[in-house]
Amino acid sequence: MIVRRERSDDVDSIHAITAEAFRGLAYSAPPVEPGGDPGEATLVSWLRDDAGWIPELSLVAIEDDRVVGHVVATRAHVGDRPALGLGPLSVLPRRQRTGVGTALMHAVLGAADALGEPLVALLGNPAYYGRFGFVPARPAGITAPDAAWGDNFQVRTLSRYEGQAGLFRYAEPFDRL
Question: Domains in the chain, please, with CATH?
Answer without folding.
Answer: 2-176 (3.40.630.30)
